[in-house]
Protein backbone atom coordinates (compact mmCIF):
# COMPACT_ATOMS: atom_id res chain seq x y z
CA UNK A 1 0.00 0.00 0.00
CA UNK A 2 1.31 3.45 -0.92
CA UNK A 3 1.28 6.22 1.69
CA UNK A 4 -0.12 9.48 0.34
CA UNK A 5 0.56 13.05 1.51
CA UNK A 6 -2.97 13.08 3.01
CA UNK A 7 -2.07 9.96 5.02
CA UNK A 8 1.02 11.72 6.41
CA UNK A 9 -1.12 14.64 7.61
CA UNK A 10 -3.26 12.29 9.68
CA UNK A 11 -0.32 10.47 11.32
CA UNK A 12 1.21 11.09 14.73
CA UNK A 13 4.84 12.16 14.72
CA UNK A 14 6.00 8.63 15.51
CA UNK A 15 3.82 7.09 12.78
CA UNK A 16 5.00 9.68 10.26
CA UNK A 17 8.70 9.14 11.00
CA UNK A 18 8.38 5.36 10.83
CA UNK A 19 6.50 5.56 7.53
CA UNK A 20 8.79 8.20 6.03
CA UNK A 21 11.99 6.33 6.89
CA UNK A 22 10.79 3.12 5.23
CA UNK A 23 9.27 4.58 2.05
CA UNK A 24 10.83 3.40 -1.19
CA UNK A 25 10.30 6.86 -2.74
CA UNK A 26 11.28 8.87 0.35
CA UNK A 27 12.78 12.25 -0.37
CA UNK A 28 16.48 12.63 0.48
CA UNK A 29 17.43 13.93 3.92
CA UNK A 30 20.67 14.92 5.66
CA UNK A 31 21.11 11.36 6.90
CA UNK A 32 21.62 10.15 3.33
CA UNK A 33 24.53 12.54 2.88
CA UNK A 34 26.22 11.28 6.05
CA UNK A 35 25.22 7.63 5.76
CA UNK A 36 22.99 7.65 8.85
CA UNK A 37 21.16 4.49 9.78
CA UNK A 38 17.93 4.66 11.78
CA UNK A 39 18.34 2.04 14.50
CA UNK A 40 15.30 2.86 16.64
CA UNK A 41 12.24 5.12 16.69
CA UNK A 42 10.07 4.90 19.78
CA UNK A 43 7.83 7.39 21.56
CA UNK A 44 10.21 10.00 23.00
CA UNK A 45 13.37 8.25 21.77
CA UNK A 46 15.43 8.02 18.58
CA UNK A 47 18.67 6.16 17.88
CA UNK A 48 20.72 6.81 14.72
CA UNK A 49 24.24 5.68 13.80
CA UNK A 50 26.85 6.30 11.15
CA UNK A 51 30.34 5.19 10.24
CA UNK A 52 33.08 7.81 10.23
CA UNK A 53 34.98 8.30 7.00
CA UNK A 54 37.95 10.31 5.74
CA UNK A 55 35.81 13.07 4.20
CA UNK A 56 34.45 13.84 7.71
CA UNK A 57 37.92 15.04 8.78
CA UNK A 58 38.65 18.37 10.41
CA UNK A 59 42.07 20.04 9.87
CA UNK A 60 43.53 17.85 12.67
CA UNK A 61 42.50 14.64 10.88
CA UNK A 62 39.78 13.51 13.28
CA UNK A 63 36.01 13.54 12.75
CA UNK A 64 34.71 17.10 12.53
CA UNK A 65 32.50 18.15 15.45
CA UNK A 66 29.74 19.06 13.03
CA UNK A 67 29.17 15.35 12.38
CA UNK A 68 28.33 14.75 16.05
CA UNK A 69 26.32 17.98 16.14
CA UNK A 70 24.26 16.82 13.15
CA UNK A 71 23.75 13.38 14.69
CA UNK A 72 22.63 14.96 17.96
CA UNK A 73 20.36 17.53 16.31
CA UNK A 74 18.78 14.69 14.32
CA UNK A 75 18.14 12.25 17.19
CA UNK A 76 17.03 14.90 19.67
CA UNK A 77 14.71 16.54 17.13
CA UNK A 78 13.30 13.19 16.04
CA UNK A 79 12.78 12.17 19.68
CA UNK A 80 10.63 15.29 20.03
CA UNK A 81 8.92 14.56 16.69
CA UNK A 82 7.85 11.10 17.90
CA UNK A 83 5.72 12.70 20.64
CA UNK A 84 3.79 15.10 18.42
CA UNK A 85 0.14 14.85 17.45
CA UNK A 86 -0.90 14.81 13.78
CA UNK A 87 -0.31 18.14 12.07
CA UNK A 88 2.07 19.52 14.72
CA UNK A 89 5.47 20.66 13.48
CA UNK A 90 8.67 21.75 15.17
CA UNK A 91 12.10 23.19 14.57
CA UNK A 92 15.29 23.45 16.61
CA UNK A 93 15.38 26.68 18.57
CA UNK A 94 18.62 26.04 20.48
CA UNK A 95 21.33 23.38 20.37
CA UNK A 96 24.09 22.88 22.96
CA UNK A 97 26.87 20.34 22.41
CA UNK A 98 29.73 19.21 24.66
CA UNK A 99 32.58 17.33 22.96
CA UNK A 100 34.31 14.77 25.17
CA UNK A 101 36.75 12.92 22.89
CA UNK A 102 37.74 12.83 19.27
CA UNK A 103 36.69 10.09 16.87
CA UNK A 104 38.97 8.73 14.14
CA UNK A 105 37.81 8.86 10.51
CA UNK A 106 38.53 5.18 9.87
CA UNK A 107 35.03 3.71 9.72
CA UNK A 108 34.22 3.70 13.42
CA UNK A 109 30.52 3.41 14.19
CA UNK A 110 29.13 6.32 16.18
CA UNK A 111 25.71 5.81 17.75
CA UNK A 112 23.55 8.73 18.89
CA UNK A 113 20.58 8.40 21.21
CA UNK A 114 18.09 11.20 21.77
CA UNK A 115 15.40 11.28 24.47
CA UNK A 116 12.78 13.86 25.32
CA UNK A 117 12.94 15.64 28.66
CA UNK A 118 9.80 17.79 28.39
CA UNK A 119 7.17 18.31 25.70
CA UNK A 120 4.90 21.26 26.36
CA UNK A 121 2.44 23.34 24.38
CA UNK A 122 4.99 25.62 22.66
CA UNK A 123 8.41 24.16 23.41
CA UNK A 124 10.05 20.79 23.93
CA UNK A 125 13.44 19.84 25.31
CA UNK A 126 15.54 16.75 24.70
CA UNK A 127 18.98 15.38 25.51
CA UNK A 128 21.33 13.21 23.51
CA UNK A 129 24.55 11.23 23.65
CA UNK A 130 26.98 10.00 21.00
CA UNK A 131 29.07 6.94 21.86
CA UNK A 132 31.72 5.01 19.97
CA UNK A 133 31.95 1.24 19.44
CA UNK A 134 33.41 0.77 22.92
CA UNK A 135 30.44 2.69 24.41
CA UNK A 136 32.73 5.60 25.29
CA UNK A 137 31.07 9.01 25.34
CA UNK A 138 32.15 11.15 22.36
CA UNK A 139 29.69 14.04 22.74
CA UNK A 140 26.47 14.95 24.50
CA UNK A 141 23.97 17.74 24.16
CA UNK A 142 20.60 19.28 24.76
CA UNK A 143 18.09 21.00 22.53
CA UNK A 144 15.06 23.23 22.79
CA UNK A 145 12.53 22.94 19.99
CA UNK A 146 9.66 25.31 19.23
CA UNK A 147 6.38 23.57 18.41
CA UNK A 148 3.97 24.72 15.70
CA UNK A 149 0.39 23.82 16.57
From TrEMBL:
Residues of the Thioesterase domain: 61-139
Assigned keywords, A-Z: Hydrolase
Key word Hydrolase present: yes
Domain of life from the UniProt record: Bacteria
InterPro entries the UniProt entry points to: HotDog_dom_sf, PAAI_dom, Thioestr_dom
Any GO molecular function: 1,4-dihydroxy-2-naphthoyl-CoA thioesterase activity
GO cellular component: cytosol
UniProt name for this protein: PaaI family thioesterase
UniProt organism field: Nocardia bovistercoris
Source taxonomy: Bacteria, Bacillati, Actinomycetota, Actinomycetes, Mycobacteriales
Amino acid sequence: MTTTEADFGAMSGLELLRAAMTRQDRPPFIGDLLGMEVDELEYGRAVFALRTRPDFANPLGTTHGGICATLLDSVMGCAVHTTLDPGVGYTTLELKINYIRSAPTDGRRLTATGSTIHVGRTTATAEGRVVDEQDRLVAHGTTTCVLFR
